[in-house]
Structures are given as C-alpha cells and as structure tokens.
C-alpha cells in the first residue's frame, strides 16, 4: 500500500491570489489526476466531497492543526499564537467537551429561533440607516449584521461595535498561512482581549450591585464562579465567539447577495416568503461558502488504500465541496428546490462541527428576507476581489446600487 508521500499528486497553489479568484476549475483538474488528493504548500488537500465527509469524522485520529498554523505564520510566543493554540478549535478530549457543554444550551435550534426577533430588529435598524444611500458596498454593510447580533447575544454594548470591526476583519486572516498578516493579527488579539476583560470587569461590578442580565455572559460568569471555566478560558471564549461568527457569516451573506443579483426572480420571492429564504440560504451554503478546515493526523490512517502517517497536515476545503460533480448532481446550477442530494458540509463535521450553525442560518434567513424587501432591484456597479483561499474565503467588496424601499411592519411569528 502506498504512503501518501509516495503518490504522484497534482499540486494546488492555494496561496496564490489567482487561485482564490477561480478555484473550481483547479479542483476539477486536480480530480482528473487523482480522485481525492492533491498537495499544497503546507501539506495535502482533500479534493473530493465523499473523502472530506469520510475523513472529517475521524476525530480520534485528527486534531486541529493549530501548532502547524502558528509555525507557518512564524507566530510562536505571540499573543495571537497562544490564542490559536489554546482556543476551542485547538482543544480536544476533556477540555473541549467541558467547554462545549457550557456553551451548547445557548446554541440549540430552539435558542436560535428565540433570537429571531432580535435578529429582525438588528437588521431593520441597519437597513434604516443604510438603505437611503441607494448605493453602497454590500460587504461593508453586511459586516455590521452578525457582529451586532453576537454583541447583543453575549451582552456587549452596541457602541463597542465600530471599534471592534477592524480587529475582527484582521482576525479573518488568521488561517491565511501568510506571515505578512501577523502584525495585524497581534494588534487585533490585544484589542479583543482588552475588550473582553473590560466587559467582564463591568459586568462583575453590576453583579456585585445585584444587577443581572439575560445573556451569554451571565452563563459564562456563573460557570467561572462554579469552577467550570478558568479566567483565561473565559476571555479566550469571548474572543472566539466574536470572531467565529463574524467573517464566516458576513462572507456567506455577501456570496448570497452576489448569487441573488444573478437570480433576480429568486431574490424577489425572498422578499415575500421567509421559508423560501431558508431554502435559498441552504442552497447558497452548498453552492459556495467560506471555510477550509485544517487538521493534522495524530495516528496513521488508511483510507482508500493510501497510508496517511501520523503528523500529516490535511486541508478540507468545505467551501467548494458542494461543487464536486462526482458527488452532487448538476452542481453548478443554483437551485433552492433541489432534492435528494447529499447534504452540504459547510459547517464541518465531527466534534468541532460549528456550534453557531443554527444562529448563522437564522440570521442569514432573517437578513435576506428584509434585505430583499428594502434593497430592491440590486445591480452590481463594480468588481470584487477575492480573499485568501486558506481559512475564511469570500468576496472582498460587492459594490451595488438599488431602488430603496420603505420598511414593512416586522413579522412577529
Ligand atoms: C455562515 C456562517 C458560519 C460558517 C460557514 C461557519 C463554519 C464553521 C466551521 C467549518 C467550523 C468547524 C471548524 C473545524 O472543524 O475546525 C466552525 C466551528 C465553530 N463555529 Fe462556526 N461558522 C459560521 C458561523 C458561526 C457563528 C454565527 C457562530 C457563533 C458564535 C459560530 C461559532 C462556532 C464555534 C464556537 C465553533 C467551534 C466549535 C468547536 O471547536 O467545538 N460559527 N464554524
């Protein structure tokens, strides 16, 4: 049986900006040479949907590749490097299960539905401010939505958001595998850490004075008090919760708007029909999304007669997995009514599967419904570029103009 390093594999220049602009033909060409594997500058890439599904489940043989990422970013001994190596995604076994157990009750589908009125209010307020402009960069607009929702869920003041946005934007480059971004990442870690520490200090004062909120910070502080979370874990979790849902959701919403501009009849229907927004959102998650998941093997794996030794770095580009014609019928057509296909794996699989997936779904559905009501007949008026493919990918900039429409009464159901 061959070892992975003995195979003649295609090579994918995933760090190349030209690759980010048009990865799909390059994945198709790679699969012509080998059905499910390619190499890249930092290890191996799983190029086929079924192989990604099969391998991502092997949690007992894989771990988050954050030591390797920190090494590639030349970030040993930095604050950002420490955060990467200790954050929830890098944890395994007991510490990971313990922290997930603390968070899980706040992230159920029922909880996500409970927050829909807050999501509706948040997007309505943003649209009131932005729609009268008649033209703007949709990505910039979208960047205020998930962070505003998350701030309210955690219990952070809305006024803090503009000051945090650029740090979150920088954090989006965490998995870019490009050391040139390290100074930005280090500054962003300092800002977000200081923000978390101030937030906790303020809240502790309020609690000491007998005032309690009804948000995630209260749950986290109760857990610290009962010994279930250390002080450092608390601050790291606050940073993580802010950044995990920021550029993933913002980029997914921007990709969705781009797809809607190309499908105006679907977009019009979204204004009238929230359930249809759900279908469009799911189809968009399949069609193109944002994440490439890094892993390292912790023991030898044999898969389809290939030996993958312990210590091998693997990348799972779930962002483009839904466009693999060996697994998905007619993958290039955007069809919200498609049935019988394999499910998208946008949110990953296994023990680290996205905890915020129900919140992400609900806020994109609610956002799309109101955006389609107020931003009528959107037209693209300039080009976009693409973000680095490693990590969190997506469009950079989506300049649009449109016909502004007034707000409708908010749905309460
Ligand atoms: C469209 C939006 C989103 C996408 C595409 C997305 C994608 C992902 C992916 C692929 C993972 C797994 C990473 C891995 O296995 O290494 C993940 C994990 C995670 N996501 Fe999301 N995410 C989104 C939104 C959110 C939101 C809104 C939150 C809320 C705060 C969130 C919180 C998390 C957390 C806490 C984890 C880590 C879970 C763990 O390590 O156990 N995500 N996300």
Question: What's this, in brief?
Answer:
This protein is an alpha+beta fold.
CATH topology: Cytochrome p450
Radius of gyration: 21 Å
The CATH superfamily is known as: Cytochrome P450
- Give the bound compounds: protoporphyrin IX containing FE
- Largest sheet properties: 5 strands, mixed
Strand content: 5-15%
Question: Averaging pLDDT over every residue, what do you get?
Answer: 94
Number of strands: 12
- Net shape: globular
Share of helix among residues? Answer: 40-55%
How far is the first residue's CA from the last residue's CA? Answer: 58 Å
The topology string of helices and strands comes to HHEEHEHHHHHEHHHHHHHHHEEEEHEEEE
Strand order of the largest sheet: 1-2-8-5-3
Judged by helices, strands and strand pairing, the structural class is alpha+beta
List the defining traits of the structure above.
single chain; 413 residues; alpha+beta; Cytochrome p450; five-stranded mixed β-sheet; globular; binds protoporphyrin IX containing FE
Structural commentary:
With 413 residues, the chain is α+β, with helices and mostly antiparallel strands. The protein has a single domain (4-404), classed as Cytochrome p450. Helices cover 50% and strands 11% of the residues. It has 18 helices and 12 strands. The chain has a 5-stranded mixed sheet. It is globular and about 65 Å long. The model has no long low-confidence stretch (mean pLDDT 94). Bound molecules: protoporphyrin IX containing FE (HEM). Protoporphyrin IX containing FE (HEM) binds at residues 64, 88-89, 100, 146, 150, 241, 244-245, 248-249, 252, 289-291, 293, 318, 346-348, 352, 354-356, 359-360.
């Amino acid at each position: 049986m061959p070892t992975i390093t003995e195979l003649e594999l295609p090579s994918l220049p995933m760090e190349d900006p030209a690759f980010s602009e048009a990865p799909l033909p390059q994945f198709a060409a790679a699969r012509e040479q080998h059905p499910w594997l390619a190499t890249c500058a930092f290890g191996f890439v799983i190029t086929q949907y079924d192989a990604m599904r099969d391998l991502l489940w092997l949690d007992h043989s894989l771990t988050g590749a954050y030591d390797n990422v920190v090494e590639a970013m030349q970030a040993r001994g930095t604050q950002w490097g420490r955060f990467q190596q200790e954050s929830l995604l890098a944890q395994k076994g007991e510490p990971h299960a313990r922290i997930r157990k603390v968070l899980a009750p706040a992230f159920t589908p029922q909880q996500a539905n409970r927050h829909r009125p807050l999501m509706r209010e948040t997007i309505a307020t943003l649209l009131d401010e932005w729609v009268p402009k008649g033209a703007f960069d949709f990505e910039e607009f979208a960047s205020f939505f998930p962070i505003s929702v998350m701030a309210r869920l955690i219990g952070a003041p809305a006024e803090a958001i503009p000051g945090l946005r650029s740090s979150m934007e920088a954090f989006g480059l965490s998995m870019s595998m490009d050391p040139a971004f390290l100074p930005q990442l280090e500054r962003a870690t300092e800002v977000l850490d200081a923000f978390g520490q101030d937030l906790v200090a303020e809240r502790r004062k309020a609690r000491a004075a007998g005032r309690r909120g009804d948000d995630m910070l209260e749950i986290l502080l109760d857990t610290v008090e009962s010994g279930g979370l250390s002080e450092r874990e608390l601050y790291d979790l606050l940073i993580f919760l802010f950044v995990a849902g920021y550029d993933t959701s913002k980029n997914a919403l921007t990709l969705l708007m781009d797809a809607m501009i190309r499908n105006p009849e679907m977009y019009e229907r979204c204004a009238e029909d929230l359930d249809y927004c759900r279908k469009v959102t799911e189809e968009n998650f399949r069609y193109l999304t944002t994440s490439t998941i890094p892993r390292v093997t912790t023991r030898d794996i044999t898969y389809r007669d290939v030996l993958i030794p312990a210590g091998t770095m693997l990348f799972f580009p779930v962002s483009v997995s839904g466009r693999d014609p060996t697994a998905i019928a007619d993958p290039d057509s955007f069809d919200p009514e498609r049935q019988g296909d394999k499910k998208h794996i946008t949110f990953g699989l296994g023990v680290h599967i996205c905890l915020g997936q129900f919140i992400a779904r609900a806020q994109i559905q609610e956002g799309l419904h109101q955006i389609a009501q107020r931003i009528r007949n959107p037209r693209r008026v300039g080009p976009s570029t693409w973000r680095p493919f490693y990590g969190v990918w997506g469009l950079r900039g989506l300049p649009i103009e449109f016909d502004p429409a007034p707000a409708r009464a908010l749905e309460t159901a």
